[in-house]
Amino acid sequence: MRTQMTGRKMFFAGKWVGRNRSIDVRDPQDNSLIDTVPAATAEDILQCVEEAKEGAKMAAAMSVHERMSVINKAAAYIEANQEVYAYTISREGSKTIREATKEVERCIQTLRISAEEARRIHGETISFDQMPGSENRVGYYQRIPIGIIGAITPFNDPLNLVAHKVGPAIAAGNAIIVKPATVTPLSALLLAEAFAEAGLPARVLSVITGYGSEIGDALVTHPAVRMISFTGGLEAGEGIVRKAGLKKISMELGSNSPVIVLEDANLEEAVAATVSGAFWAAGQNCLGVQRVYIQEQIMEAFQLAFVEMTNQYRVGNKLSEQTDMGPLISEKEAIRVENIVNEAIEKGARLLTGGIREGAFYSPTVLTDVPENCTISKEEIFGPVVLLYSVENLDLAIKKANDVEYGLQAGIFTNDVRKAHEAIAKLDVGGIMVNDSSDYRIDAMPFGGVKKSGLGREGIKYAIEEMTEPKVVCFKL
């Protein structure tokens, strides 16, 4: 395990290679240089795909117990080096060291679940004799790997979201080429290091660093790449769909998640969960709480408690155990958030707390009375900003919660099971958390959204289903 990184190489079909051009990886907190990584070219992607063709054959030929062993060894390697992994996540991204430590723990869990699910890739028998004339036929189907998977991952979970693609891909017997976020490539390279140390056959996994504008299309459009697994923004996702051609697509494209708080809810729990859900990882979280609809009878009490807890949030040095929230991923992103908030205030929104930017830092911000014609009312903010709305009843809360183009997850706080089930039936989202915020997920559950929040589902078992195909076998006796 490297503890000092000076000119990190990329993982090209099982080999660590450099390139003449490099990309600086900087800490968004102070813009200090952490390391450099190679700037790959489209030609590198083409060569990598050729290597991955052989890797796919090797991966498919691995027995289930071999796949399980490699994945478990990779998880053990990360576990033995947790501090280095957490430090890297925190330095190159936005997470505090406490948030980064939790991500490492989740990554280990993701890989171990992947190893377990490798033993549960099952088919079924088929009753061919259901059709007249086929009485002498028996058979089944089995699930087979699809071949080469292209994975494009974001900056906000630079280790675990890569593991969510790599773990299932290897468990299913595929080769995979990962293009990590340009600003946070180091964590993905550390994941590759874990698999290299675990004995994964060369050519099965590649982590190629570079600018998306230079290498993205070569990966997405290559006919030998049979699936693209993408986590990122809506605009980029729509571009991939237009370019990809005839192949599988799995996408998680974010959201502006709603939470409903009814008058019978436990107010203290609702406030604590929604504050955490709004400001985890500086709000750069696809599940982050952006809109909270509070029944009017408790609006004043909820608002006061929410602002009070928000004001207790400690913003500062990411590497301090006492810090609750660090910077955004860049000053550019902080300026974007600042402009969106200022637009809302200019149009009549009321600022309850926050709204202060210092470089890449943007203070936890709470708005109310936000007009519907504001950008922040409909689009994903991807920053530490939350909107509080007063609503008359559950029906109105559901209507407003659904009145956006996204639908990843939602939360509802209530002690009335009938109202909970009404929300479950009517909220147009991929997941509903009852008496919790939208910002809750375990790595084994099916994860994904509806509308413009994405296509398909992640979560290990469900990702494996996306990354395999059924092959039918029929015997004529």
UniProtKB/TrEMBL annotation:
Keywords: Oxidoreductase. InterPro entries: Ald_DH/histidinol_DH, Ald_DH_C, Ald_DH_N, Aldehyde_DH_dom, ALDH-related_metabolic_enz. Transmembrane segments: none annotated. One of its GO terms (molecular function) is lactaldehyde dehydrogenase (NAD+) activity. Residues 16-473 form the Aldehyde dehydrogenase domain. Signal peptide: none annotated. Its EC number is 1.2.1.97. PANTHER family: ALDEHYDE DEHYDROGENASE. Belongs to the aldehyde dehydrogenase family. Part of the sulfo-TAL (or sulfo-SFT) pathway, a D-sulfoquinovose degradation pathway that produces sulfolactate (SL). Catalyzes the oxidation of 3-sulfolactaldehyde (SLA) to sulfolactate (SL). This is 3-sulfolactaldehyde dehydrogenase. It comes from Mesobacillus persicus. The lineage of its organism: Bacteria, Bacillati, Bacillota, Bacilli, Bacillales.
